[in-house]
């Protein structure tokens, strides 16, 4: 039995070696070239989130706040959190790393990409790190400071859409003027006497 098995193994290997020649070699691999988005000086150097990316950033922040509050409520059986608990969760949400966010170029337009953001291209280069985590953290802290922990938590309790509406689409929201996808219009300057 062993000599027959050895013979079969040798013949299998010899036949397998000729398979590439019969099929004219291994299949050709396709290559794709992807370039990183070219960032302007403002996008690279400013400590603030560029105007064109603020709506995406707001949605990322709302998503992270929602996730952190949902996890905290899950630990207490889906009950409402105490004021001290949700204040701590909001602080932790804003102080997180934010390293999973960055900029991609989609259809010639730079967009923020990462968890909770809808429009992402799987085959593209995303520039992460650098100024993006600090900008997101700074925006998150400013939202909590401007809107207040209680108002943010109440919106969260009404659902993710209510939280996004409060943070991003309200009168002062980053997405307020971008219903058609463009940046928010500039406010008219007042003449001071």
**Can you count the helices?**
8
Order of helices and strands: HHHHHEEEHHH
Give helix % range: 40-55%
**Shape category:** elongated
Q: Numbering strands along the chain, what is their spatial order in the largest sheet?
A: 2-1-3
Task: Tell me the number of strands.
Answer: 3
Give me some keywords for this one.
3 strands; mainly alpha; disordered C terminus; 3-stranded antiparallel sheet; elongated; 8 helices; about 190 residues
Polypeptide structure, described:
With 193 residues, this protein is mostly helical. 50% of the residues lie in helices and 6% in strands. The protein has eight helices and three strands; from the N terminus they run αααααβββααα. A hairpin with a 2-residue loop joins strand 1 (102-106) and strand 2.
What is the secondary structure topology, with strand pairs?
Layout: H1 2-17, H2 19-22, H3 41-45, H4 54-75, H5 83-95, E1 102-106, E2 109-113, E3 127-128, H6 132-147, H7 149-158, H8 160-169
Antiparallel strand pairs: 1-2, 1-3
Helix pairs in contact: 4-5, 4-6, 4-8, 5-6, 7-8
């Amino acid at each position: 039995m062993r000599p027959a098995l050895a013979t079969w193994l040798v013949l299998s290997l010899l036949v397998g070696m000729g398979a590439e020649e019969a099929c004219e070699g291994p299949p050709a691999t396709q290559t794709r070239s992807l370039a990183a988005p070219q960032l302007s000086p403002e996008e690279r150097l400013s400590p603030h989130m560029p105007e064109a990316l603020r709506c995406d950033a707001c949605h990322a922040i709302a998503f992270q706040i929602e996730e952190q509050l949902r996890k905290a409520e899950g630990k207490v059986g889906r009950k409402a959190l105490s004021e001290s608990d949700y204040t701590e969760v909001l602080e932790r949400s804003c102080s997180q790393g934010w390293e999973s966010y960055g900029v991609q170029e989609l259809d010639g337009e730079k967009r923020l990409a990462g968890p909770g953001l809808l429009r992402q291209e799987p085959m593209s280069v995303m520039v992460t790190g650098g100024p993006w985590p600090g900008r997101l953290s700074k925006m998150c802290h400013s939202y909590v400071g401007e809107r207040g922990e209680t108002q943010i938590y109440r919106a969260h309790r009404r659902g993710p859409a209510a939280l996004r509406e409060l943070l991003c689409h309200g009168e002062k929201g980053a997405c307020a003027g971008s219903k058609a996808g463009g940046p928010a219009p500039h406010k008219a300057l007042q003449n001071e006497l």
